[in-house]
Specification:
Number of strands: 3
Largest sheet: 3 strands, antiparallel
Strand content: 15-25%
Distance between the termini: 13 Å
Oligomer: single chain
Structural class: alpha+beta
Strand order of the largest sheet: 1-2-3
Length: about 110
């Protein structure tokens, strides 16, 4: 678990820019996961889509596919909820703090 404030801020900034949060061996040993936020019609984060898999079987190509699948699923749910186009389907959706609520997606 990441507890150093400087490293945590850097990780949050990376997540904001990419729109994806990823974790390897953080809470559970040998677990890799990726997640993307879901926005509602008020552009507030109302949930997330996440996928987890054994870290020992992770390959770079599979990781890229997981990231894209999670991003696309979050974007589809956002659209179904009436979320703003681009809130979850544009590259780096968290780089734009949507009504000051982007931090919620990462905590």
């Amino acid at each position: 678990t990441l507890t150093d404030p400087v490293r945590l801020r850097a990780l949050l900034e990376t997540c904001r820019k990419s729109g994806i949060a990823a974790s390897a061996d953080g809470y559970e040993e040998d677990v890799f996961s990726v997640a993307a936020p879901v926005f509602n019609s008020g552009d507030a984060v109302c949930g997330a889509v996440a996928v987890a898999a054994p870290d020992s079987r992770r390959r770079q190509a599979a990781e890229a596919s997981m990231r894209e699948a999670v991003r696309q699923a979050a974007a589809a749910i956002t659209r179904a909820l009436g979320g703003a186009p681009g809130a979850a389907d544009a590259p780096g959706p968290l780089a734009r703090a949507r009504n000051g609520r982007a931090e919620q997606a990462l905590i």
